[in-house]
């Protein structure tokens, strides 16, 4: 795989007019040909970051390089290489065919137009004979989203930026949207940058994951984010889970103690909790999911514990040795020091 840098961000900040900082990113590199996931709770700045990466919103401080160059002055050219899809796409008031052909016509790039439009339709699971001449208002929500994606794929973009592309579509459309994005990456080496809450899918396909929280990068890769209420108790800070269990963390004076992350690699699945150091967090739960994480080649085990899901990362061999499967009752162990304030 090519590891050339396509985006590089240094000390970048962003604020909407007169508003507080919505982004504050010290450093971020995105490689060409990567599938980069952006995750984080609502309001953490995912859409703002994606609009900046798609050159639809200027950042307000620091620097952003695209393909090694300062993009200012070259936005028009760059926008031809980067295409952006929102969660609720709108179509032009014309046929499906003309919607997809529109971008190519704008670029005077109309050789083999019909073939290319049909190819794009097939990529999103829409049969050209059935859909090409359909008018924009005769489509379901999921079909609208797929046509919108087909219109972007027809451009063979260098970068495909997707903002929660499957949040508002039915499950079968969601699957087709995800497959089409991955096929662009596989066949053309398109760099895919996607914000989504579909963490399972991201673990399976992404080469990088960026965790955002309140405008800052709080981790790379799948993280456990534990939001409050965290309360002080006996010299520690604890987060009570809905089933009465408690996660303990260390107090750090300069931290706000609002939210913390725990790296899944620091969370061990324990079958025999007797052998643990007294000070470790021991949290009981039920395995609800197991994923092969593409970026690490490890298993990611999701465990429901009270109101939250905690993830543990381990080798595939270890998963086999421990004979873990969905519905297994397990104990998770991690040190209070591994709970990191953000
Ligand atoms: P996310 O996509 O992770 O939910 P956003 O990037 O949409 O986060 O929002 C980050 C913050 O910026 C939020 O506090 C949001 O209210 C604010 N925000 C988003 N868009 C605008 C806008 N156009 N004008 C002012 N504030 C905005
Ligand atoms: Mg958003």
Report on this model:
This protein has 342 residues and is α+β, with helices and mostly antiparallel strands. It has two domains: 5-94 and 151-213, P-loop containing nucleotide triphosphate hydrolases (Rossmann fold), CATH 3.40.50; 222-341, RNA polymerase II/Efflux pump adaptor protein, barrel-sandwich hybrid domain (OB fold (Dihydrolipoamide Acetyltransferase, E2P)). The chain has nine helices and 20 strands. It has helices at 46-53, 75-79, 96-106, 113-123, 128-131, 141-153, 171-188, 199-205, 316-322; strands spanning 5-15, 21-31, 35-39, 61-66, 82-85, 159-163, 191-195, 208-213, 216-220, 224-227, 230-233, 236-240, 246-250, 259-262, 268-270, 281-292, 299-305, 308-314, 329-334, 340-341. A six-stranded mixed sheet has the order 5-6-7-3-8-9, sandwiched between helices. The protein has a five-stranded antiparallel sheet with strand order 15-19-16-17-18. The protein has a three-stranded antiparallel sheet with strand order 2-1-4, covered by helices on one side. A hairpin with a 2-residue loop joins strand 8 and strand 9. Helix 6 runs parallel beside helix 7 (171-188). The longest helix is centred in the middle third of the chain and has 18 residues, at 171-188. It is globular, with a radius of gyration of 22 Å. The chain binds adenosine-5'-diphosphate and magnesium ion (MG).
